[in-house]
Predict the 3D structure of the following.
Amino acid sequence: MSDIKDRLDAVRRRIAAAEAQYDRPAGSVALLAVSKGQPATAVAAAAAAGQRLFGESYVQEALPKIEALAGEGLEWHFIGRLQSNKAKFIGRRFAWVHSLDNLKAAEALDRHRPAGSPPLNVCIQVNACGERQKSGVAPERVPALAEAVAGLARLRLRGLMTIPVPSDDFSEQRHAFGIVAERWRQCRAAGLALDTLSMGMSRDLEAAICEGATIVRIGTAVFGPRPRAPNRTP
Ligand SMILES: *Cc1c(COP(=O)(O)O)cnc(C)c1O
């Protein structure tokens, strides 16, 4: 498991180098380690190496890990497709949801967030380039959804998230992130107190940081290849 520590250190160095290169303050980009498809032992190894934020895409897969690592002071972020029958578990067990893309799901999370917990941090997922993928709202629909979500008492709207079409071309990567960053600035100018841009994965974190990412979501570069296909039932 020392390879997880080595890979974590390498990712931390990539983040620090990108912050320096693109005039971002040192330490302004948080690392969310995406542990979907990884066993709890891998999460424990990353936690032992100082990693605190973890991302999961499938509720059924995540709950036993959250249970196994309770008391370790970890913060769990849900980054997968939202299904209404999972809103209860997500609202109770996660600190963040990055993949909000409709008001109905937001209202369900708001209803299920326990009164004794702090508000659930949420990001709206944006489908930057109108590609075929079904998740995410079109950029032009972001302001209206953001206003509506910001009005829900048990949610705290933190910002926007995106998963662009995979590309190895730096300027193509930047283009998609730039579209989302532009909407983020627009929402802030309209008075929404957004502080989070969740964008950048293993292959494109530099382009995301260049365009203003504040959280990068990194799976394979931290944990290596996913050992088993993630459980497809969310
Ligand atoms: C799997 C996943 C990641 C991590 O992807 P890697 O390419 O392994 O870094 C990030 N964000 C989301 C939403 C994911 O589903």
Observations:
- The mean pLDDT is 95.
